[in-house]
Amino acid sequence: MLETEVHDLSDDADYAASQQQGSQSIMRTDSGRRSEPDGGEVVYMRDNVSIHPTQYLSERISGRLKLIKQGDTLLMTWIPYKGQNSNARLSERDRNLYTIRPLPFTDVRSIRRHNPPFGWQYVIIVLGSGLAFPPLYFYNGGVKEFLATIKQHVYLVRSADDANVFIVNDFQDPLQKTLSSLELPGVVSIAATSTSGSSVNQEKADGSGYDGIAISQSIGRPRHKFNDPARDLSIQVLEKFSLVTKFARETTSQLFREPSGDHTFFNEGRKQSQTHSAPDTPPRLVSHELQTIEDEIPVPKAPVPADPLEFDKLTLVWGKPRQSPLTREEWVTFLDSEGRVVDSKTLRKRIFYGGVAHELRKEVWPFLLGYYDYNSTYAEREYLRSVKKQDYEIIKLQWQSISPEQAKRFTKFRERKGLIEKDVVRTDRSFSFYDGDDNPNVQLLHDILLTYSFYNFDLGYCQGMSDFLSPILFVMEEDSEAFWCFAALMERLGPNFNRDQSGMHAQLFALSKLVELSDGPLHNYFKQNDCLNYFFCFRWILIQFKRELRYEETMRLWEVLWTHHLTEHLHLYICVAILKKHRSKIIGEQMDFDTLLKFINELSGHIDLDATLRDAEALCICAGETGEACIPPGTPPSLAIENGLLSSQLEDEVL
């Protein structure tokens, strides 16, 4: 399930600065009142409220939003954090241009709330003159409290035409003000345009139209028939400050589309805006990924519906670049003097973005798999290994002691043993660790799998388990350690091999919902072509892309998945990312199920892992709680990993 770390900004320089200043990350209106030096009373305060000058998440400007009651007047301020500058491209002067100094609500016409199913809530403050501030993103929530506090002190009514628009001090002509407030940021009212346009045009030419406030002007802009929150990003301000290029502006304007009625990420109304774009509009952003099979495909034979997600642009904003693997020098910094992992959350996040150096995997994988407890010491782990080695030998002896006469009367044993013998001789035999005749490592695979079939007799052995054990044995080298790491992994992924396939069906169902959420046209195409069961992704999910990637890439992917950073179900977002990557070919060539299955299988060896992980991360972050709700509770893997799976057994033995 999604962790709260999705919204954790503790690594953000701005937030760190706010912590140094002694601020709290969240302060609700009922947590007490504070006084301002000038006698005002703080009735609402929220940290980590941010604006986005560019399309890059790392270049956001974070600050503190306040509502201040001064006499009978309610004021709003937004002050960027000082002391740290996470946005290297912005000078202190530029940063100050975005500051919202005390703004009385008597000057505010309306507040538009945006509550997209993906990403974070934001609001847009529109002044009576028709000018709009840049959107304020609430990374720690708080929009509901923000509006509720305002309503306590000023006359605030919801627009009859749009439930997300709130009209401030609307005493005279509610209808006119409601209609005009819907044009964002072309929010200049009809009256303002016709009668007072000259006064509006006399706003300061540098864009600081309200007491040094950075606001967007929209004079001379054509009205648009649909609400376009992309234009709510105050593009005019960004142009004046020369903070974004045309490339960045177009990317930004395509990124922040409001969700459409079919529950896809962004409004398909962008087709309309593209149709009427200016001649000098820069070309659409092309994929940043490495060359794939799709580069060589012919021109689609059928029209392909536009991707409502603008996939490549989404990844640029939310997908972080991959890092180098965790090294031994870094690893020891996570351990205290007795061998405990002091910050498992940060460790897992580090591995999520970089993986683990191969020579270190033997030490780190048992933690990720839940075999070792993060709080265990060197001595406790040594004792655990000795105890578990004895347990392993006892279990293995159960099948080794079966005589040929017993085997004749033990049908289940014969069947499982025969299936294991067939599978191990064709598992990764091209890999040096398992190649050659009479390879002892192949025999170890056989023994461990047969032992597991006795350890977990209900589940036994199923085809595909050898694919999971192979890299684990290669890394751990010793049979007992490999066995218990494999057993820990099967605690999570064992449902993949249920006889009734309930575990697989749950994951395929969740995948279908995630595709429907992120790409309605693609999901509808699968539905129209009897592909809605998503069985063409069966192998991907069953053995977690083992057959699609090179051996080293498989190990790198698995250790990323095992971190459970962001979500337990990153593998499903990887499936979505790959399908979206090739949606043009799938839809354009009108693939039926058989053709699609063949195409999916042929992707083996042609998947760019780093790019796909970045895409999947972006999808997961933007999906947020809505994506989480698509995944039924208990969908594999769904087991907590913070404490070792076997630690309780060890405690019983010690006691």
UniProtKB/TrEMBL annotation:
Span of domain Rab-GAP TBC: 355-565
Location of this chain's protein in the cell: Cytoplasm
Protein name as it appears in the record: TBC1 domain family member 15
One Pfam family of this chain: PH_RBD
GO CC annotation, single: cytoplasm
Record key words, sorted: Acetylation, Cytoplasm, GTPase activation, Phosphoprotein
Superkingdom: Eukaryota
Species this protein is from: Opuntia streptacantha (Prickly pear cactus)
Polar residues biased stretches: 17-28
Residue span of region Disordered: 1-41, 258-284
Role, per record: Acts as a GTPase activating protein for RAB7A. Does not act on RAB4, RAB5 or RAB6.
InterPro entries tied to this protein: Rab-GAP-TBC_dom, Rab-GAP_TBC_sf, SGSM1/2_RBD
Database matches in SMART domains: TBC (SM00164)
Main location class: cytoplasm
Basic and acidic residues: compositionally biased ranges: 1-10
Assembly description: Interacts with non-phosphorylated form of RAB8A; phosphorylation of RAB8A at 'Thr-72' disrupts this interaction. Interacts with ARMC12.
Annotated GO MF terms: GTPase activator activity
